[in-house]
Amino acid sequence: MSTAGRKEMQGIAVSPGIIIGKARVVDRSRVKIMYQYLIGEDQVSREVERFRQAVDAAEEQMVALKDRIAESVKEGGVILDSHLMILHDSMLSDSTVKRILNERINAEWALKKSEEEIRRIFDRIDDEYISGRIHDVENVAERILRNLSGQEHNGLGEINDRVIIVAHELSPADTSELNTGKVMGFVTDAGGRTSHTAIIAQALEIPAVVGLESITDAVEDRDLLIVDGNTGRVIINPDDDAIIQYQEKQLQYEKYRADIARESRLPAETLDGRPVVLRGNIEFLEEVAAVREYGGEGVGLYRTEFQYLGAKERPSEEDLFEDYREVTELAAPYPVYIRTLDLGGDKFATSVECSPETNPALGLRGIRLCLREPDMFRAQLRAILRASAYGEIRIMYPMISGVQEVLDSQAHLDEVKNDLDRKGEAYDPDVKVGIIVEVPSAVAVAELLARHVDFFSLGTNDLIQYSLAIDRVNETVAHMYQPFHPAILRMIRQVVDAARAADIGVTMCGEMAGDPLCIPILLGMGFNELSVNARGIPFAKKMIRSVTMAQAETMYEAAMHMDTATEVRAYVQEQLKHLIPDLDGGTVNIEQ
Ligand code: PEP
Ligand code: MG
What we know:
The protein is α/β, with parallel strands linked by helices. The chain has 24 helices and 16 strands. β9 (277-282), α11 and β10 (299-303) form a beta-alpha-beta unit.
């Protein structure tokens, strides 16, 4: 146990629950601190030796890793073989040694220079696949750098103790790798409220606080931590009083959850009897059970990226079909809205080659990537259509910025349908197709888009990111994520109006739909269908069951006349305070 004293930090609560446990500090960030210094003549041979030892250690680690995974995953072995070749390639190893000898610079600096030179050579290669192999070189160089700096190479999947993970940042793929039976929760320096890392934490039902900025500096391995995933408070090395206080809060919260869950079987309707369809957002097939248990009427958003994120190879059409069929059968008689692949942004799969981008959120993401990779897109569309023979499926395209992308996507869908017709394979010919409205330009042309699709689903996580120009994974601007911003409320209303005028469906699947404070405004605006993360269903239902339509409409009208998000939030909080239980001033999704 560290000797460090008690310390409290405030971050962004992204996945509810209270945990008390030991910290495990992992470094998933790249080795960022890299000292560059000149060395004296007498230090040269020691520096070369230090480099050689780091290379030998890298070899040992890779061979050990290969032995461990080779039987189960053949491709993993092949990748490691290529990494071993890179490790011993003269362009990397010999040239680094030469630099240490000739330029008299430290090993880290020399290695970085060699890596840069290889990158320049790769950049000139006009073959996307080969130039993309620079990632393997980076991976190997990073391993050597870690060995030089004495940092451990941590495999998150191998953590098997009851610990709280403390990291600079975790990617969605890292998060889905966590052994949820063991890992109690996690806290990170980076991240925002609607980052996909946060969304996965909710899906896995592990408490999480992100955006703590410097928690990795403040915590040492095995420090005792209290993590409050409801309020975002983290206490490092708490005293006995704090432990007792939080154990009490833990019990209180569990009781509150149990009460809410009990009520989740009741219908989702307002006090005056207006029914609202509440569905669940899922990332994994296994979550359908939770959606049902919490009283959701089907799946309003299936994020299909996670089958790609965890795997070394792209899933086959058959794998996808089996998964979608099962989700559809489990959700029946309710529908499943399957979103086509939305890779890019903050989600990268090793099996889908993407060049590094300066602004991934504005890069080759979602439908843009699918239209660039038609084989991958069509494999998914075929799998979805085939699964539509087993229940009600609705297809949603992500990141649509205008009508042309809908037309291009529909052309692929039509071709896939023709192909299935030719082969006599069954599918639902009337499968409904919609888009996620999450790019501001789609709002501007909502009226045009409505002529081409069967429904809109508001993706407020990205709509807020792109409209308010705040990176959803950047903790320094996380406080500016404001669903009540007058611009956002107006944009949502514009989409609802366009859908109504064209007589097509409109729903919302962004996190805003599950924020109890936002729900009355959304009802007042005319939404009668919402999709929220599975665990949020009971909380959303409780709010729906606590207001009348007249109250909701009044609140909506009042909010539309206010000038700032702060004003709207204060007003809504005041109106609803009697409905929100006092759990340290907030409950799930209430804190901003
Ligand atoms: C959204 O952007 O609101 C959305 C639902 O999609 P995701 O969070 O997966 O980007
Ligand atoms: Mg989105």
